[in-house]
Every structure is written in structure tokens, then in C-alpha cells.
Design goal:
Chain B: The chain crosses the membrane at residues 6-27, 77-98, 110-129, 135-153. The complex is a heterodimer of chains A (182) and B (173). Chain A is mainly alpha-helical and 182 residues long. Chain A has 7 helices and no strands. The longest helix of chain A is centred in the middle third of the chain and has 44 residues, at 63-106. The two termini of chain A are 32 Å apart. By secondary structure, chain B is mostly helical. Helices cover 82% and strands 0% of the residues of chain B. Chain B contains 7 helices and no strands. Chain B has helices spanning 2-18, 27-37, 43-55, 63-102, 106-134, 138-153, 158-172. The interface between A and B is large, with 93 and 105 residues.
Chain lengths: 182, 173
């Protein structure tokens, strides 16, 4: 589907477009990514964004990083993908290392230690909230709930290596999904 | 040093290839490798680095370059980043070519449906491990619970919740 309102970015535009996205997306880049790519830059239509995101969620790796790679590929192949992804992670990497320097230099100071302990507890709370919100689509699906519990127990309680847990649980879950659909 | 860099490369390449359902699913394994297996840092340090990465803008896996840097300086940062972001990106490029062909294949749907509960279980395990590492006093446990509750029931921006946690820790810790 060719949309006349779609702009075709150069490699440079990809780099700087994703650089600004990376630097401005606090607390999760996904909602901002849609706004930037579809509404502001017009690199994708709404349907294309949803389809591309579906693909990126299905693949290993961070959704938003995969999305930058897919966007770059679409317009300029491998070099476009590199430009988009490097743009996305360059700014946040610099910021995160800066914060790391501050943490390493001052974490013996009691105030700084307490500040970071509170920050870490809040970050853990956000992760708990995310897990709770993700449970919703499992409602009324006992089979899926059992699989989720199995994965939770294997990693969270038994501390199993991820590779073995994935090799055991994922095929089982996919087979159950296939059987349920037939 | 070379051994450490090699270990970082192996760990994060593996995590890159296994990170179905986004970065958060591999946190338990990352913590197991970095804290238990290689003992590069304590669980509390891991929790703090993760929190720093959450407070910074950008993708949610920015804890990776930070861990690499913490463990082995600039070369560690580079090795961890390339190992974590490279392989999954190459897979994305490859699959993009095949995407249209698989679009209507029923197994694509089954894989998607089957991966969902696994992803949820892994995220829940990440949450449990982070809570165990960070909720070391009753005050911090309250911070975890209140932030979780606020994030579920309100639309407050996560950055405000992180800042609130830091302020509570600083004043009452």
C-alpha cells in the first residue's frame, strides 16, 4: 500500500530521528515511537507501524531496537539499519554511563546509597506492576496460566538457566497453542 | 581481562538470541550470570544498575552497556553492547525478508500465542528477583508496593514514580 503522505528518510535522517527518539523516551520508548514515526516524521502509516511492531515483538531482542533495525532496513538496507539502531542507543548509552560514574564515585556516601536504594526499589515496583498488567490476557485461560507459572517457577524460584527453561517450556507452550486452535 | 571480555561476549550473545518477548524476559538469566556465576557484583549492585538504566531515557535494555562498563570499562561496554544488540538485529534483518511469506501461515500464529504465557512468566520472575534484591528494609518494601500499586492504578509517568522512590530513600532511608 503506497501512501502519498509517506516521507522517505535519508540515512542521516534515520540516525538523527532515532537519536532524538532515544534521548526523549523516558520510561519506555514504544508510545513515543508511534507518535514520532507515524505522526511527526510520516515514515510509516498506522497499519504499517502495527504490522512492523508485531514482527518485532515476535523476534528476540528489544521491541524498539528491532523496530529501529526494521525501519532502517526498509529504506536503506543494512547501512540504514545500522544508522537507525546506532542513533537509538548512542544517546542513552552516554547518559547511562554518566549515571554509572556518579554511582561508582559516590555509592559509599550514605545519602547517595539511600537515594539509589529508593530508586532501585521503585524500579522493582515498576517491574511488579508490568508483570501484573501483563497477566490480563491470561484471564480464563488455565492452560496459559499454567505455562506462565511454570516459567515463573523455573526462573524465579528454581533459578534454572534460561536456555534450558526456554528449550523445555516454549515448544510445549507452542504445541498446546496449536492443539487448542485445531 | 581478555577472559572477562570473552565471558561478557558469550553471556550477552546468548541473552540476545533468547530475548523473546523483549528485554525484560532475560533479566533473571542476566542476574544469575553476572551475580551468581561470575560474581562481578552483588544482587544489590545489580538492582541499582538496573534502576539507573530505568531512570535514563531510551530502550529498556540500557542496563547492558552499563554492566559491561561496570565489569570491564569501555571495552566491556563495547563488547556487551555489540553482543546484546548485534545478533538479535541480524535476525530481525533476516526475518524481515521472509515476513510476507510467513504472514498467513498458521504456525506463525501458534508461535505467537505460545510465546505469550512464557513471556509473562519470565517477566514475573524478573520482578520477583528485583524485589528480593532491592526490598532489603521494610521502608524499601513499602516503596516497591506503593510504586507497583500507583503504576497499575494510575497513569502517572514512571519517571515521577522513580523520582519519588529516590526521594523517599534519601529522606527516610
Amino acid at each position: 500500500m503506497e501512501d502519498v503522505s509517506i516521507h522517505r528518510p535519508r540515512r542521516r535522517d534515520l540516525f538523527f530521528g532515532f537519536l532524538s527518539l532515544g534521548l526523549t523516551s523516558f520510561g519506555g520508548a514504544l508510545p513515543l515511537a508511534r507518535r514520532a514515526l507515524v505522526e511527526r516524521l510520516h515514515w510509516l502509516s498506522d497499519e504499517e507501524f502495527t504490522e512492523l511492531l508485531g514482527l518485532c515483538q515476535f523476534l528476540p531482542g528489544g521491541n524498539i531496537i528491532n523496530l529501529s533495525v526494521a525501519m532502517g532496513m526498509r529504506f536503506h538496507g543494512f547501512s540504514g539499519a545500522m544508522a537507525a539502531m546506532l542513533g537509538l542507543i548512542a544517546g542513552p548509552t552516554a547518559i547511562v554511563i554518566g549515571l554509572g560514574v556518579i554511582y561508582e564515585r559516590f555509592h559509599d556516601d550514605a545519602h547517595v546509597r539511600h537515594l539509589f536504594a529508593g530508586l532501585a526499589a521503585a524500579a522493582a515496583g515498576l517491574m511488579v506492576a508490568m508483570a501484573i498488567k501483563m497477566l490480563k490476557p491470561l484471564r480464563g485461560k488455565p492452560q496459559a496460566i499454567a505455562i506462565a507459572l511454570l516459567a515463573f517457577a523455573a526462573l524465579g524460584l528454581l533459578h534454572m538457566p534460561l536456555l534450558w527453561a526456554m528449550l523445555l517450556i516454549t515448544p510445549l507452550s507452542i504445541l498446546l497453542a496449536a492443539r487448542a486452535a485445531r | 581481562m581478555t577472559e572477562t571480555l570473552f565471558a561478557l561476549a558469550v553471556i550477552f550473545t546468548q541473552l540476545s538470541l533468547l530475548a523473546f518477548g523483549g528485554g525484560n524476559t532475560v533479566l533473571p538469566e542476566m542476574q544469575r550470570q553476572v551475580v551468581d556465576v561470575h560474581q562481578w557484583m552483588t544482587a544489590a549492585d545489580f538492582g541499582a544498575l538496573f534502576a539507573l538504566a530505568r531512570a535514563a531515557p531510551g530502550p529498556n535494555m540500557m542496563v547492558v552497556p552499563l554492566i559491561g562498563w561496570h565489569v570491564a570499562g569501555w571495552s566491556g561496554m563495547l563488547v556487551a553492547s555489540v553482543a546484546k544488540f548485534g545478533p538479535s538485529s541480524l535476525i530481525t534483518m533476516f526475518v524481515l525478508h521472509l515476513w510476507t511469506r510467513f504472514k498467513d501461515h498458521p504456525w506463525r500464529g501458534y508461535v505467537q500465542v505460545g510465546l505469550l504465557p512464557v513471556t509473562i512468566g519470565l517477566v514475573a520472575a524478573s520482578a520477583l528477583l528485583l524485589v528480593q534484591a532491592t526490598a532489603t528494609t521494610w521502608l524499601l518494601a513499602v516503596v516497591v508496593a506503593v510504586v507497583a500499586g500507583l503504576d497499575v492504578f494510575t497513569k502517572w509517568h514512571p519517571l515521577w514514580l522513580l523520582a519519588g522512590g529516590a526521594v523517599v530513600g534519601l529522606i527516610f532511608g
